[in-house]
Design a protein that fits this description.
Chain A: Belongs to the xanthine dehydrogenase family. Chain A has 954 residues and is α+β, with helices and mostly antiparallel strands. Among the domains of chain A are: 72-177 and 238-289 and 294-327, Aldehyde oxidase/xanthine dehydrogenase, a/b hammerhead (Aldehyde Oxidoreductase, domain 3), CATH 3.90.1170; 331-499 and 661-808, Aldehyde Oxidoreductase, domain 4; 855-953, Lipocalin (Beta Barrel). In chain A, helix 13 (407-424) crosses helix 14 (428-435) and helix 20 (698-718) crosses helix 21. Chain B has 3 domains: 7-53, Uridine Diphospho-n-acetylenolpyruvylglucosamine Reductase, domain 2; 58-173, Uridine Diphospho-n-acetylenolpyruvylglucosamine Reductase, domain 3, CATH 3.30.465.10; 180-288, Enolase-like, domain 1. Classes of the chains: A alpha+beta (954), B alpha+beta (289).
Chain lengths: 954, 289
């Protein structure tokens, strides 16, 4: 089977033709160029392949698809204990007392730690850029809490269930303060963090618009002000956060952690905890998605590491989905206003942007706001741009990265251009053609001093338009409108700096280490890391391609900080670009070394040596063909046969430093139909035209784009993290936080408009583009569909109720009581009459005046609208109170029904109990204080803890 | 997301199950398909001290024709209801409704009785039971009683069951062959609870509607029976009715609510349209016959 194969002559030519054919058909997923792992590798077939550019099957898939992936929770260590957290039920307040006596008595509990117990360790909760935070951040709450879900105590027990049992028995007394939840509130509220002057977490730009810029804007014949409100997003990786930490000796830590780079985690932990880096090994073989959440550890993971250090037992914490949706850092929640001045013909004159981001209480990336404005207009001929950008502290869970950090500027620019096109009376394609930087315009420098040499959004757009007949669509759209069907076309273009390296401390190059083993097989060690990226596949393709070996004969190791060198892993669409370049360079070094040895052994010059399909041959001398294994055996085992000064073995490594930025470009077209009866959006077609340079594996490229577009669809139509006014999360399960499902995502079409970049190998990053360009393409399509009804405010998500409000020209989303209904009174009177605020009976007595002689009654009596902030979200309740002296009576009604109560009224303090059956039998103990037309207080709900109550006179 | 400790029993008979429920004095939860209960246990929103698993009780499973109707055992899996020849032939609207309950995977485990007993206001099956005039058989150690679905629901997740009672059967009255079925649901994603939905049937004899059963889901704290619309329809011929007027009267019998997914006003507005659309389609379908 391993008989030497001669690779020359007509056969090779045939094979090359076959390869070209295969590449031509690459847009078909079922292309015949796919290798089939089920078949025994056929050397002839494999020899034909140059692997870069092929849709080879992913090396990761057999283990992932058969349930043999190795995620954190798949690892168990002898003696390990489990961790659960007791978390803050309030958004803001001081911790008055923590009583853990009962919890500590639960059998199976080993320890419970608060921040006081961990205070012996100095921890610096640095950012991804290794910057210390402006405000004190501790792993567990230090005397005060600043968001609902903040970890207050860490319970260690034999099992997670026992740990949760004990966590629920920890009694924490809080002195609650009014929280600051929204960006708007953060502007004016006193600072949420002691020792700060205001709630600004980070700021860049000027608060007042520059005079010259203002003048330019004012002279513009068309001045557009466009605003976008982007909701808060949960990154929602399929694998939630998790860590298993063990100490193998003094300061020797092994961390199994779900992350985006084991090297980055090791570096972060070393600096944050002040530990020698050599003592930390981080392993993350398989990761179920990161999306920016897992760049580095945060409060919970750090607390678990410290607790393991203190207890000296292996500890495991696996975040459950409820914790992930309330306690894991979140993303976006941004508001931006963009002013754009246009000339009569739609040419850009000037622009100003004002951006705000809700950074939460303890942002992982307070400073990331700086990124926003750099690329707003980078690909457009915009003469001048000014900006103000601010991140705001609030009493919500902190800000973290999310796939596509350039999303907001792309969304607001591309949607603003469509608004402007409608206003000026231009075609959306035309307004882009007039302003986009084309290849002919380059090299050039953007108004924000970004050097551009090879960006291709204009070219991507033109290629897109060859795949989509706009004129035919406009006819179809017009015909459909005649029948009151509303179709829309959304176009968007973008550029994105990918593979950034050299400007920021953690954004480095990549190291590739590769060797031809004595067996002739190839092993590579990379600092790439896949959370679904398939880097073990793409890197193997490069090595196989450049070394002349079969793809099946290359194994890539990654996911372990003890191997290879530093890289930040998956962050900013960088691995294909930089690690790809490193792999190419390392493979070339190794190929050169192999050829040098082979030429020595085969008595020729290195130039005459060919390596293909694992065989080494001399051009024109087929009898001299040897296997790579033969050569490698000599390289490792027979030093006497090596050339002089030849380092034994066949090993090479290269750290590739790419250009500072490598730009990716794209244009997308999306076609939707909006149902004017319901406001529902149906996506009919979606075409992506992208320039990702050299595609190493087109199937992986398309997978990356598709995944990003799916997330963009979620952002535009479905997803939204919500809080009530007390900061309680209203989306604590996937029943309420709606991710896009397969039914929401169309089959995407791809136009590969690739041009090689200037980095080694010509790759451009493609990990995030779909998530960036998808949102404006879809928003523009919806806005185009609904243009007969007016502009669609870009307040994401564009839910059916918001779109129906545009269609009907009235606000259907307002939370008002229903008009009086007249449910049928005939028939069976035992039918449950809905008891809602809308249908609650009128109070028998008028509020406030009925017992005017009693001052207490005058304050309390009457009808109240209240909000009970339960762990599962806010509940609206109507209350009716009547006082007689110190006695209180009345009823509460909610969608669950109406219940009478009696209690006490002392001054303006009301106390009463209600017994309920669902979700279980508990007594609700209300303790409310009335202040004028407002009331506030607590409801103790048995094992569910306390819930805030707020209300006002109805 | 680990449940608080609980005991577990899997009785082999209704008597045993009822005895356990009585003994538990309200501390028990009945486990059928577990598609709601298990997440609630894991979130610790429900903390019973004993689970009574009714899956080992043969008489609680199966779909059979009975006098003047169809009886469905409460522990019948939703996937079995979807495939039931009896339902497909006699009451296809039930099949249509069950197809909209959750997802393929959850229907393999979830039960018809579980959904009907739980009474999620935006769920399909409670409204179907109310619309079609189903009777719910309830047993305890004290005896047996029959409650019409109409009277079964008191509010969201609240019903007339006492803590020692178990739902042991759901009987749907027979509808004449050739009755019209109505099913409409608007949900953000397939498998989600409805933003608004309606379900029902119309019996027609000699061109006139003789019996109408219509109910909403997602339009109030319980399934909402469209009584006024039912009254308006009876005695009419399909050709003569004005779907818009019927729809208006049907929405008058609802009490829609605001939540984070949509507003009461949206539910009311779109519900009216869905109802009219559904009636029009039913009329078209009838004329096509």
């Amino acid at each position: 089977m391993n008989a030497p194969t001669q690779i020359s002559g007509p056969k090779a030519t045939e094979n090359i033709q076959e390869t070209q054919l295969a590449i031509k058909s690459e847009s078909q997923l079922e292309s015949k160029s796919e290798n089939k792992p089920s078949e025994k590798p056929s050397h002839d077939a494999i020899t034909s392949g140059r692997y870069i550019g092929q849709r080879v099957r992913r090396k990761e898939d057999p283990r992932l698809l058969t349930g043999r992936g190795q995620f954190v929770d798949d690892i168990s260590l002898p003696g390990q204990l489990q961790v659960a957290f007791a978390r803050s039920p309030i958004a803001r307040g001081d911790i008055v007392a923590i009583n853990m006596d009962i919890a500590l008595d639960v059998p199976g509990v080993h320890a419970i730690y608060t921040q006081q117990d961990l205070a012996c360790y100095n921890v610096d909760m640095i950012s991804f850029f290794l910057v210390s935070p402006e405000v004190e951040i501790t792993p567990l709450a230090n005397g005060r809490v600043a968001y609902v879900g903040e970890p207050v105590a860490l319970v260690i027990a034999d099992s997670r269930a026992i740990a949760e049992d004990a966590a629920s028995l920890i009694e924490v007394e809080y002195a609650e303060q009014d929280p600051v939840i929204s960006i708007r509130d953060a502007h004016h509220a006193p600072p949420i963090h002691p020792g700060t002057d205001d709630n600004i977490a980070a700021q860049m730009g000027e608060e007042d618009i520059d005079e010259d810029l203002e003048a330019e804007l004012q002279r513009a014949p068309h001045l557009i002000t466009h605003t976008v409100v982007h909701q808060r997003i949960s990154q929602s990786p399929m694998e939630t956060r998790g860590v298993l930490v063990t100490f193998d000796g003094s300061e020797e830590i092994t961390l199994y952690i779900t992350c985006q780079s084991p090297h980055m985690v090791a570096r972060w932990v070393s600096i944050a905890l002040g530990l020698p880096p050599a003592a930390i090994r981080v392993i993350a073989k398989d990761v179920g998605g990161g999306f920016g959440l897992k760049n580095h550890p945060w409060k919970e993971e750090t607390a678990v590491i410290l607790a393991a250090m203190k207890l000296r037992r292996p500890l495991k914490w696996i975040e459950d989905r409820y914790e992930n949706l309330i306690g894991a850092n979140q993303a976006r929640e941004q508001e931006m206003a963009l002013q754009i001045g246009f000339d009569h013909d739609g040419t850009l004159i000037a622009s100003h942007g004002n951006y705000s981001c809700n950074n939460g209480a303890y942002p992982q990336l307070a400073e990331c706001n700086i990124a926003v404005h750099m690329f707003v207009w980078a690909a457009y001929k915009m003469p001048t741009y000014g900006f103000l950008t601010r991140g705001w502290y609030t009493n919500t869970v902190g800000y973290a990265a999310y796939r596509g950090p350039w999303a907001m500027e792309t969304l607001i620019r591309e949607t603003a251009l469509d608004v402007a096109a409608r206003r000026i009376g231009l075609d959306p394609i035309e307004i882009r053609r007039r302003n986009l930087v084309t290849l002919q315009d380059q090299p050039t420098t953007s108004c924000m001093e970004i050097p551009l040499e090879d960006v291709t959004p204009a070219e991507c757009l033109e290629k897109l338009l060859t795949a989509f007949d706009v004129a035919a669509f406009r006819q179809e759209q017009a015909a459909a409108r005649e029948q009151e069907r509303y179709l829309g076309l959304g176009l968007a273009t973008y550029i994105e700096p990918t593979g950034a390296a050299g400007a920021i401390t953690t954004m480095t190059g990549e190291l590739a280490q590769v060797r031809i083993e004595p067996t002739g097989k190839v092993t590579a060690t990379m600092s790439t890391h896949s959370q679904g990226h398939g880097t073990a596949t793409t890197m193997a393709q490069i090595f196989a391609d450049r070394l002349g070996v079969a793809y099946e004969d290359v194994t890539v190791f990654e996911g372990d900080s003890s191997r290879g060198g530093f890289s930040p892993g998956a962050a900013g669409s960088r691995q294909g670009v930089i690690a790809g370049g490193a792999a190419i360079k390392a493979a070339e070094l190794l190929a050169d070394k192999t050829k040098l040895l082979a030429s020595h052994l085969l008595d020729t010059t290195p130039d005459n040596i060919l390596i293909d399909n694992g065989m080494v041959s001399v051009a024109g001398q087929p009898d001299k063909t040897r296997s790579l294994a033969d050569i490698a055996n000599i390289a490792y085992g027979e030093p006497d046969r090596l050339p002089e000064d030849f380092e034994p073995g066949l090993e090479a490594q290269y750290r590739y430093q790419p250009p500072p930025m490598t730009f990716s470009s794209a244009a997308n077209a999306c076609v939707v139909e909006v149902d004017s009866d319901t406001g529902f959006v149906k996506i009919l077609r979606w075409i992506s035209s992208e320039d990702c340079g050299t595609p190493i594996n087109p199937a992986i490229v398309e997978g990356q784009i598709s995944g990003g577009l799916a997330q963009a669809i979620g952002m535009v139509l479905l997803e939204e993290v919500g809080f009530d006014e007390r900061g309680n999360p209203t989306t604590a399960t996937y029943k309420d936080y709606h991710l896009p499902a397969i039914s929401d995502v169309p089959d995407f079409e791809f136009v590969h408009a690739n041009t090689p970049s200037q980095s080694v190998g010509g790759m451009r990053g493609v990990g995030e583009g779909g998530a960036i360009i998808g949102a404006p393409a879809l928003v523009n399509a919806i806005a185009d569909a609904l243009s007969p009804f007016g502009e669609v405010p870009v307040e994401l998500p564009l839910t059916p109720v918001k779109l129906l409000s545009v269609i009907e020209g009235r606000d259907l989303s307002r939370k008002t009581a229903a008009p009086a209904n007249t449910p049928a009174q005939e028939g069976n009177t035992s039918v449950a009459e809905p008891v809602t605020p809308a249908t609650a009976p009128e109070p028998a007595i008028a509020p406030a005046t009925a017992t005017a002689t009693n001052t207490v009654a005058a304050v309390i009596d009457g009808d109240w609208k209240m909000i009970l902030s339960t762990p599962m979200g806010p509940q609206e309740i109507s209350g009716h109170f009547e006082t007689q002296g110190d006695l209180l009576s009345g009823y509460l009604s909610s969608p669950e029904g109406q219940m009478d109560f009696s209690g006490t009224a002392e001054g303006n303090n009301l106390k009463f109990d209600l017994k309920v059956q669902k979700p279980m039998k508990i007594t609700l103990k209300y303790n409310l204080t009335v202040d004028g037309d407002k009331l506030a207080g607590k409801c103790k709900m048995g094992i569910f803890g306390s819930a805030k109550v707020s209300g006002e006179r109805a | 997301m680990k449940p608080a400790p609980f005991d577990y029993v899997a009785p082999a008979s209704v008597e045993e199950a009822c005895a356990t429920l009585a003994e538990a004095c309200g501390g028990a939860a009945v486990l059928a398909g577990g598609q709601t209960l298990i997440p609630l246990l894991n979130l610790r929103m429900s903390q019973p001290f004993i689970l009574v698993d009714i899956n080992n009780i043969p008489e609680l499973k199966g779909i059979t024709r009975v006098d003047h109707g169809i009886r469905i055992g409460p522990a019948t899996r939703q996937c079995d209801a979807v495939d039931s020849d009896i339902l497909i032939q006699d009451l296809p609207v039930i099949v249509e409704a069950v197809r909209h309950v959750g997802h393929h995977q959850t229907r393999n485990r979830g039960t018809v009785g579980g959904s009907i007993t739980l009474g999620e206001p935006a769920a399909e099956l409670p409204a179907t039971a109310v619309a079609l005039g189903a009777t719910i058989e309830i047993r305890s150690s004290q005896g047996i009683r029959q409650v019409s679905a109409d009277e079964f629901y008191l509010g969201p997740y609240m019903n007339v069951l006492e803590h020692d009672e178990l739902v042991t059967g759901i009987t749907f009255p027979g509808w004449p062959q050739g009755h019209l079925t109505i099913f409409r649901e608007l949900a953000q994603r397939p498998g989600d609870f409805a933003l608004v939905g309606l379900v029902g049937a119309l019996a027609i004899e000699a061109g006139k509607i003789t019996h109408a059963g219509l109910a909403w889901f997602g339009m109030g704290p319980t399934p909402m029976k469209a009584r006024q619309a039912e009254q308006l329809l009876i005695g009419q011929s399909l050709q003569d009715i004005d779907p818009e007027i019927i729809a208006e009267s049907a929405v008058a019998d609802t009490a829609p609510f605001d939540d984070q997914h949509t507003s009461a006003e949206y539910r009311r507005t779109v519900g009216t349209r869905l109802f009219a659309r559904a009636l029009l389609e039913a009329i078209d379908a009838q004329e096509a016959v």
